[in-house]
């Protein structure tokens, strides 16, 4: 099958490389010419484990990139919309980029004689495919639904494990308005060992939000329990390990810590809250999930202040800037509010992340970035652990370089040492 993917960020590039690996011919489309150039040279525009190998293998053969929507639509049977769906200033979903991509696709579809399917892969609130994307495509293509196909196929990949997740999905959801379009989308995944759930677009859209909202709820719930446990001198990890043995609960996403970040959980929970309010429902649990999450970073700085008092002029090391390990993505990283608060308090911030220094330097020009943990820890007054990078687990003699041996662990990943004051966020 010939596929075009609109938007070559995390989802678009990974999907493109994996569809090519599954044997399809893929055209990537982006408005960012630097990304187009990179992909055509076989260089991923983002870091993702295994992506370089796949792009090198398929670029110039089964995979190419362009900024020309007409070329992409004329030379493919299906177009996936994979552009970003950020929050607007009030937290509601901002569909501006999806609308722009839909208009361009509609224009490109105008002159196409053959049947073509448009698939929304971006995470969009329920009703968007039917009530926003479809009308825009009809208006710009001067065609009616049925003359072209429309479907919704949400993406569940985890950054850092994205290639594996695409190739080994636990679910594939295809929401379509008619069988013909849905059959075509489903056929793309026939090479994967996974049941395909067929439904309508708004249910597919909702499944994606509920998936993320439930995982975020597990994290905030675990953080709330962790905060209570800490006051009572109870090891919350021991509690949750036992609780997770209940098959109805499961052992995953019960780790308390600095909270969830990333390009999806915060914005998706907020978007679902916004959609619920739009229809006149006040979602109490979802609101609390966000509130608990927003308070966790501040709790870390408070623990630091309890130990050091005034932070003015103190050198504070922040280990980990990415929102999670194995990615260079810093979107909504919990280290961002922590660094902001440290700077507000007059601290000098020394930072190290194995991959995300460069991205964070675009946000904070006024902190000192180091290329290894030793340099970031040298002469430091305290260390905050923000991201669960594997390499942090084996840090040991590096802490000897600190002026004042104090660690606040936001991820429950360091083994306490007798000569270091170790404070866990919720334990
Ligand atoms: N990142 C994830 O882990 C993940 C996982 C599942 C779902 N999603 C969802 O997938 C969608 C995309 O997320 P992402 O993280 O890949 O976004 P991203 O911001 O990394 O990439 C979006 C890309 O779209 C391009 N773009 C912007 N406007 C365009 C236009 N008019 N035409 C063509 N390209 C355009 C941008 O240049 C960028 O390269 C979002 O809705 C997100 O919620 C993301």
Structure description:
With 427 residues, the protein is of the alpha/beta class. Helices cover 42% and strands 14% of the residues. It is built from 16 helices and 14 strands. The strands form 2 sheets. It has an 8-stranded mixed sheet with strand order 3-2-1-4-5-6-7-8, sandwiched between helices. The protein has a 6-stranded parallel sheet with strand order 11-10-9-12-13-14. Strand 12 (382-385), helix 16 and strand 13 (406-409) form a beta-alpha-beta unit. The model has no long low-confidence stretch (mean pLDDT 97). The site of nicotinamide-adenine-dinucleotide has 26 residues, from helix 1 and helix 5.
* Measured distance between first and last alpha carbons: 52 Å
Class by helix and strand content? alpha/beta
Helix-strand string: EHEHHEHEHEHEHEHEHHHHEHEHEHEHEE
Give the rounded overall mean pLDDT.
97
Helix content class? 40-55%
Radius of gyration: 23 Å
Q: Number of helical runs?
A: 16
Overall number of strands:
14
The 3D shape can be described as globular
Keywords summarizing the entry:
single chain, 427 residues, alpha/beta, eight-stranded mixed β-sheet, six-stranded parallel β-sheet, 14 strands, binds nicotinamide-adenine-dinucleotide
Task: Report a brief summary of the structure.
By secondary structure, the chain is an alpha/beta fold. The protein has helices at 10-21, 33-40, 51-58, 69-74, 96-109, 128-141, 162-167, 179-188, 201-232, 236-243, 265-278, 284-308, 335-344, 357-361, 373-377, 390-393, and strands at 2-6, 25-29, 63-66, 78-81, 117-120, 149-152, 172-176, 196-199, 315-319, 348-352, 368-369, 382-385, 406-409, 421-424. It has an 8-stranded mixed β-sheet, with helices on both faces. Strands 11-10-9-12-13-14 form a 6-stranded parallel β-sheet.
